[in-house]
Amino acid sequence: MRLRRARLLLIAPLALVLSGCSDFVILHPTPVSNAPIQSLPPIGFNHRYGNSPVAAADGFGLEHALFSQLVFWEVGVRTDPQSAGFVDRTNPGAVAAARAQVTAIEVALATEKLTTIHGMLAYATDAGQEQYCIGVINFFRALGYVGLTKATVLVFFTEQDEHAMLSWTPAGGYSYRVFDNNLKGNAFRPGPTATPLLSPA
Known about the structure:
Elements: H1 2-19, H2 53-67, E1 74-80, H3 92-101, E2 104-111, H4 114-121, H5 126-143, E3 150-157, E4 161-169, E5 173-178
């Protein structure tokens, strides 16, 4: 008798809860049309590569140009003024004007690929690495970034090591600084047969 009473005490609240479910109606989703999904308009862009449509497209272009050399950098580009790059990329005149309006550019190169790290560290001196980073800036100048008054290249090995930074201004010229002592004493150091990276420009 006690067992039956206990069962009733458990079932009664459950019945009250379920009785409220009559207020809910299950809706079946409308079938999706087989029409093709529209792509992003020309103004759309991937923020991973740059901070505007033009910067992102140019960052993507550099990354793939380097990939064709079997050099595996992830590339991100930040340009100022950012607003200059918000143009229709299908309009060559607008893109050219946007690039010419940029006064500052910052390019981040990052890799976890050991062959790319070895290629960067295979330069005999820091000056060789500096010339490589200058080649990155020259890549963008060749695209039409002709109004630059400031340029920076940041180089990262893995997610934790900021390897180096190149800075440029018309008054100060180029300045290259290595932060990690070129990984001397670290297992990431290249062997004597490692080949320096080809210039990106």
